[in-house]
Amino acid sequence: GIEETKKMLQSHFVTKDLGPINYFHGIEVQHTVEGLVLSQYKYVLDMLRDVGMLGCKPTCAHGCVLAYCR
User: pTM surpassing 0.70?
Assistant: First the structure.
């Protein structure tokens, strides 16, 4: 299982157990009783903020989602 895999990796590399994962490479990980929920919500908000489009509203044209700012 997981413990055996961690021990094998530790025998080849210097590792550090950071505990349960919450955020990794733009993916937020939420732990629930049913399992894990993966979301890129925070990543998308950060990206929209970086390009100055956080206040833009979505619109749909010809099946594509486009953004426009008011």
Answer: no
